[in-house]
Amino acid sequence: MRYDVPVQAAHIRPLNVLKDLFPVADLIESCFAGTLDPDGRDYLRHIRKSAADPSILRWMTGPSERISTPLHGYVWEEDRRLIGNISLIPIYRGGKWIYLIANVAVHPDFRRRGIARQLTLRALEHIRSHGATAAWLQVRSDNPAAYQLYLETGFVERSRRTTWVGNGDSGMMVDTHPLISPRRRGDWAWQERWLQELYPPEVSWNLSFDLRHFNPHWWYSALRWLNGDEQNHWVLRQPQTGQPLGFASWEPSASYADHVWIATSDQYERYALKYLLPQVRHSLYHRHRPTSINFPAGRAEDNFREAGFHVLNTLVWMEHPMPENVF
Ligand SMILES: CC(C)(COP(=O)(O)OP(=O)(O)OC[C@H]1O[C@@H](n2cnc3c(N)ncnc32)[C@H](O)[C@@H]1OP(=O)(O)O)[C@@H](O)C(=O)NCCC(=O)NCCS
To answer: Phi and psi of 266, rounded to 5°?
Structure first.
């Protein structure tokens, strides 16, 4: 087992946000150049802005690392040159601390020397010693090198999800299906169950998905109204009974694409998507914003393509459980 390899600490040290942020941003940019999406570019801008602003840095270097900044971790330095990085993001979830590992990057001239493996092992040691119950990370499905590295350091695959994107500038004029209608109060039991199946906790915790956003109960509706939250639902119904067969629910987002969440059963999935996806494209055309849908990888791909969606990425979620830290 490769994860028994001892950590050789000589070149590894904790990230120092006061001096490492610019070189870390440069390293991430050069290592991920081909795969950065608009959110990734925003993230780099955010790191560089933080590096340039002493007031943000003072706040970030406080006593606790359990704040929501991605700027803890370890770097690999040789001859004062920063050539490797791993970021650690602590997250409080379900009453427990877990860590997200991100930005694993090694300068191209220094690869295949075991640097990423040793950074990963050091990060796992850190996470274990901080009492967390698990480490998580995501890796693109078209990155077998990194996937192999994580398998060898003890991670196991938990889920594989594709993000489909429909560009806002190619709205489709479609024959909308006569059986698509707005949501009714009695639909929630179906929608709630299917949303939970398609976005289970092990997937939804890292998406900006919150089941409560869609609950039609007056209390949640009042909260949405007070917050000025927008949303829209399209429901495909069974012709004879009017029973829901599938839902598409839209909400705007602060990221570069708005979100649409799908709720349907295995049985109706393809039929529901065939009609709901063109309806979504058609109805959201006026917004001139991309729409993104997170969906289990390898499922209903024809439906998404036929409705004009393309793959942004397929991410594999991997977990390194730490049962010794579960009390
Ligand atoms: C992925 C990456 C971090 C690996 O860094 P590295 O220091 O070269 O990796 P290591 O030398 O520690 O390799 C550890 C193991 O990972 C696997 N691996 C790493 N690079 C590989 C490659 N190019 N092809 C196949 N396997 C590879 C191997 O199993 C390797 O063990 P081995 O060398 O004994 O066969 C580096 O290639 C990189 O920065 N890539 C671009 C950014 C990136 O994709 N980051 C991961 C995001 S999830």
So the answer is: -55, -40
